[in-house]
Amino acid sequence: MAFRSTWQLRADFALALSHMYGEEVPAYTTLVEVSTEVNDDYIKNHANGERLGSIERVTAERHGAIRVGSPEEMSQVARVFAAFGMFPVGYYDLRDAAKSSVPVVSTAFRPIDREELAKNPFRVFTSMLATDDPRFFDEQLQQELKEFIGNRTLFPAELLELADKAAAEGGLEDAEAERLLELATAAFKLSEDPVDFEWYKKLEKISAVAADIGGVTTTHINHLTPRVLDIDDLYARMEARGITMIDEVQGPPAWDGPDVLLRQTSFRALDEERIFRFEDGTVGPGQLRVRFGEVEQRGIALTSKGRELYDAMVAEVDKRLAAGEGSVRTEVARKVWEENLPKDERGLLEQGLAFFTFETTPEAAQAQLHDDAELLELIDAGLVTAIPIVYEDFLPRSAAGIFQSNLKDKGTRDDAQQGTDYNIDLMSEIVGRRVAEPTELYQAQMDESLEQLGKDLGIRVNA
Question: Which N-terminal residues, if any, form the signal peptide (predicted)?
C-alpha cells in the first residue's frame, strides 16, 4: 500500500478544498481562471517573470482563511494542520487594525522549511474570536458565546486521531490518507444546518465576523486565495467580467520599484442562500453575506529594518491623507514609496532592508579570490547572484482592510473598556507549540545561504 508523505497530503488537501470551494462559490472558479490568464500573460511579457517563484508554484499556490471560536477549537485546528506539515507562523491582532468591529486574533499555519514551501506552499490564515474582550461583548454575551461554542464540535475525534498519527509519522498509508482528507475537507464545508436567526442577528449587530464565527454550529472556508503576478491586471480583468471588486488593492502600492511584502484584493462578498430557524420554531430560507474571493500578489520579505521603514511609510501616507494632500490612498502611497524605498533589489540589499539567498555564477569557478570578500562586490563582479526571498506571511492592516471591505456595516465596540491582552506568547500556549516569528525564519534562511556561499567560494563572505 502506498504511503503519502506530509507534503503530498498538503497538496491533496489544498486541491480538495479548492474543488469544494469552487462548487460553493462559483465566482471563485472565475477568479482562478482569470488568475491563470494573468500569470500566463505576465510570464510571456516579462523576462524575469519567475523572479519570485516558478510559474508552476505560483499557479498552484493558495492560501485559505478560516475562523474558530475558542482556544480549544484553535488548539484542535492546529492539530489538523500539523498533519499537513503546516505550523503556526506570525501573530496578527485584527481588533485594532480594523476600523470596523473585527474581534479576532490570528495566526497562519504554513510550511516552514524552504523545500516544503517549494513543494506546496499552502497556508491558512486562522482567526480566533476574542470572546473575552469587553469592548465587544458584555459579561452576559460572553457567557452565552462560550456556552454556544462549547456545545459544538468542529473537528470529530476520528479526524484529530488521524491528524496526530500523520503528524507523528510524517504521512499516512493510502487508505488512512483518504479518510483524513475526507474528514478534514468536510470539517471546512459550508453547513446546511439551520442557523438560529435571533442568535445570529444578535451577534451581527456587534460584528458580522463574530456572527460568522459564533452564530453557527460549524466553521467553513471563508475565502480561498490564488496568487497572481500582476494584481492590478487581475483587478481590471475581473471588473471587465462584471464582477464587483472592493474599492482598492490593500497593502503596498503599484510602483516602478521592487514589489515588497504583500498586496491583496477581493471581489465583494456575495449573498448566499442559507436556512434559518426563527424564534417561532419555523424554518425558512434567507441570505448571509460573509464569504468573498480574495487574491494576492507576493513580494520580497523585508528585514526588521525594512519593516520599520514600511510602517513609517504607511504612517506617512495616513498623515498626508489626513492633511488633505491627496484623496486616493494608492496615489499618495506611490509618491511616498518613490521618496523612501530603493528603486531596485540591490538597493534593498545594500541598505539591509530585504532578505535574499545567494548562488554562485559559472564565472566564480575561474575567479581568483582572497581569504574574504564583500558580498556586494562579489555581486557587482558577476560572481554571485542574489535571489529575493518571497514574503510568505500576512499584514494585519491589509487583512483587516479585506475583512471590513466586505462587511455590510461597521458593527459596534465600546472603547471605554480595556481590551483583553493577547500576544504571540499566549497564542503559542493556545496552539500548543511556539508560534514562529516570520522575520526569524527569513533571517535563518538568509544566514544559511550566506554560510553555504562561503563554503562554495572557499572564502569568508562579509555581508
Answer: none
